[in-house]
Every structure is written in C-alpha cells, then in structure tokens.
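The following block was generated as part of the benchmark described in Methods. Ligand: magnesium ion.
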Amino acid sequence: GVPRIVLLPGDGIGPEVMAAATEVLAAVGTFDLAEHPIGADAIRAYGVPLADRTLAACAEADAVLLGAVGAGAVGAGAVGAGAGAAGSAGAGAPHDAPRPEQGVLDLRSGLGVYANLRPVRTMPGITHLSALRTDRAADVDLVVVRELTGGIYYGPRGDVRDMPGEGVPRPAGDGPARRAVFDTCVYSADEIERVARTAFELARERARPGRPPRVTSVDKANVLTTSRLWREVVQEVADRDFGDVVLDHLLVDTAAMLLVTDPGRFDVILTENMFGDILSDETAAIIGSLGCLASASLTGLGAGGGLFEPVHGSAPDIAGKGVANPVGMILSVALMLRFGLRMAEVANAVEAAVQNALAAGTRTPDLGGDATTTQMTNAIVKSL
Ligand code: NAI
Ligand code: MG
C-alpha cells in the first residue's frame, strides 16, 4: 500500500524546512501524509507539547517526519521547582509552563526509538573546520549512534531537598544562594546492549573491501559509574557476537578533540544520550553547518519505521526569513526512505540530488551563499 507518514512541522524554521521535505516527497513517489502539531505549536492547539492523539497517530504510521521544536532562547534564571521543570519555555515564561522541547523527548520515548543515527559526510565544495589542518582534511564519512531514550535527559531531576536517598547534603533556607538542584544519569545493561548492537550492525553494513567494520565507543569511564557499565557491556557484546568489528574506547573529552583535529579516523561512533547530543553538534562544524545534518531514530537497524528529523533546532534567529537550509531536513527524508520505508534506491537518488545541487554552487547563507530555502529546494528537486 501507500506508505503513511506523519508530518510534525513544529516551530520556528520547522514548517519552512518541512515544506521542502514535502516537495521532495511529491517528486519521488506517492505518500499518504497527515500533519499534526508538536512543540509550542501543539501547546497553542492542545495545551500540551505532544497530545495523546498525536503520539497515537505517530505510533500507527509507517514513519514520522519532524521539523523542529522550541519557542526561542532558554530563559536564564528559571531553574526548576520539580521534575521536568528545569529551564523555561522562553523569556518571561513561568518556569512550570509546559516546555515545547518536552514534546520531542516524549515522542522519542513514546515511540521507543532508542538508537539515533546521525551521519556526517563532507559536502562538495563546502569548507569544513578540519580544513584548518589540511593534512587531516581527508574525506569525513562517519555516523554518530546516540542512545536516545535513557541517561540524564530522562532520569529523575529537581530540587535536592526532594532528592531521594540518605547522606545527600541539603541546603537550609530559601534564598537564591541556597538553591541546589540535581539531574540523574541512569543506564541499564539492556539499554546499553541494544544500542551497541545497532552500532555494530551498522558498522558491518558500512564495511568495504580494505575497510573493516569499526566502532569507537565514547564514554567517561574514568569518572562516571554509568560509563564504566557502558564500556563493560559494549566490550562484552563485541567479544560475544561481533569479533569481526574493530572496537576502541575513547573518553569523551579526547573524542571531542579528535573530532576537530582528525575526523577522518572515525567510522561509527557509539555513545550515550548527552555525549551524543553534544558531539553530533560538534561534527556539524566539520561539514560546515548544523543545517546540513540529518538523523534517524530507530528501534533497531532492520526494524523499519522510526522518527526522522534534522539535527538542528527551531532557529528563532532566522525563522520567517525564508533562508533556512533545507538540506538537513531533505537528508532526513532520505534516511526515512532508506531505514523507515525500505526504499533504498529512492534514498540514494535524494542524497545524490543534494550532492549535485551543492556541487553546482547553490548554497543557503549558512553555507556562505545567498540562496533562499525555496531556491535550494528547487535546485535539489530539479536534480532528482
Ligand atoms: P538551533 O539549531 O535552532 O540554531 C543554532 C544556530 O544554527 C542558529 O544560529 C541557527 O540560525 C543556525 N541554524 C540551525 N538550523 C539551521 C538551518 N536549517 N539553516 C540555517 N541555519 C541554521 O539551536 P538553538 O538556537 O540552540 O535552539 C533554538 C531552539 O531550538 C531552542 O528552543 C532549542 O531548545 C530548540 N532545539 C530543538 C531541537 C529539536 O527540535 N530536535 C534540537 C535543538 C534545539
Ligand atoms: Mg543537540
């Protein structure tokens, strides 16, 4: 039948890049598209950043395509009064107001998409940071596999006065100087094992003659208990079932440095939720712009379905100007075609069209050009 796709345009530039995605979909096939609000858009419509009916529609669809959420800058000073309330929905918003970003967190956990794949490849003609070290500016072709539904983004958080456990130092009084809050990073061996399997299987798929499958696992095992379990479980899975995969372990600070100085050394990078969030934004600098990065969030490599979204946020600084780079969104469509809908040939065609349009010199302002979102999209669609 016709693949059913839920579209969640969201906030800021989300709807602008989603329009580009639907142009590309219209050019490559027939799809049953159903649009729903998420984020600040959903708070306006339903009072919550992710309505139950929206999550249900996503769970029933063959794949979900998301733009971006976020009402704007995170307000300073509004640090939380309880679980889920740390931070603020925007300048002036009360700190217990529903946060647009919670919609994406709830969607990821609601769909159970524990493995987030973020491919990073050098783009034709685009200067990347590693060109600073011309000897190391070799072609970058890596994938960050980020654990997406566990760790510190999902653990208990709040005021230390409400923190469970004995022996926690609790500040007395109520003045600002007495404020103390906590976040918690929790990982089970099962959560680590399943995402490690995804990374190892992906490494096998990416192996070429002369290039054996290779995974670099990133943690902070010299300090964190969760990281020590992470390293232990990843190594066990490798020893037991993936003897052909070359595995090494790096501390996250070292990995951050090597990504800038020697990005060509990486193939598949496996890491936990927060480290993956930060390192994948760093890798954006390697290829020139956050606007070019795509992601797939899956329940395993061959599972089908899933959630597909660009890595960037709602970019309030450029929203409404028509200049957002649609490449990250369009490459997310390609990932959806490949992993979500098993249409690999069409996915290849979309990726080639992006490469061709960039190589021909069409670039949005974030890449040093002056093309609008529409012009960039048209160039890609024309090249299809
Ligand atoms: P951001 O990714 O929205 O923007 C960072 C910088 O990159 C800005 O200068 C922006 O103009 C630029 N940029 C981002 N995407 C671009 C594109 N497609 N084309 C051209 N330039 C682009 O991150 P920021 O500013 O930290 O966060 C803004 C809002 O987005 C916040 O509310 C944040 O919570 C939310 N956010 C949402 C995400 C999601 O929906 N998955 C992910 C990251 C942030
Ligand atoms: Mg991020």
